[in-house]
Design a protein that fits this description.
alpha/beta, eight-stranded parallel beta barrel, 11 helices, globular
Length: 284
Amino acid sequence: MPLAATGELVSRAATEGTAVAAFNIITLEHVEAVVAGAESVNAPVILQVSENAVKFRRGRLLPLARAATAAAEQASVPVALHLDHVQSDGLLRQAPDAGFSSVMYDASRLPYAENLTATRTAARWAHDQGLWIEAELGEVSGKNGRPRLDAHAPAARTDPAEARAFVADSGVDALAVAIGSVHAMTTRTAALDHALLKRLAATLDVPLVLHGSSGLPDTELTAAVTGGITKVNFGTALNLAMTGAIRDFLAADPEAVDSRQYLTVAREAMTVAVARIMRVVRAG
């Protein structure tokens, strides 16, 4: 089917009182696994390409974007493309022609006033291009090599009153909030501040997004969705599944050299992980 629009998927999830899962993709195997996992649970999904993934792909957005588009068009469920954690204005401006319906513009590393100015400019440009735009306030740490803040430190949290002003002044369509999750966690031990989430959900009239979701146990994920999170991002969970499957395969057969063999088990492991995560998110 044709590419879906991220904004429409998120709006539909909000109306239904659930959330849409978004997965960061790096390789074609990631793309195929996410689509297959979504099809197995018959649910819409968002494929996300981060600025870091573009750097890994030698700075070229189109090869991975074209592969994701082709997979989405052959999928039996709605699939949208989202450009994630964009800091480069040059990359931002590639989004419309590459098939993306949405971007997450990340100026959260900047002081509040600078974050607001940069995000407002990006939002105006994005809306002129018909793009749905997400931003971040507070700091979901662990991204781009930045030192991890204590996720429960006041400086890392999203303040509801500040968030309300930021959304109104920037014009963004969704806000990623810092409520205790951390990027790149390899254990599922993070705990969210559900009281803060409740305040944010009551204060803001745009969809709330949760980054760093791979580090959360199932109970925290379902509580987050129940509490008002409408888009839930995952990345490390897929990499853990992929790398673990490859390690196990090569440990059992150290003489193996055909990459198709270990990439097959890696893709299957990621498919299982995607399906499991989507069941949990939708159960919320």
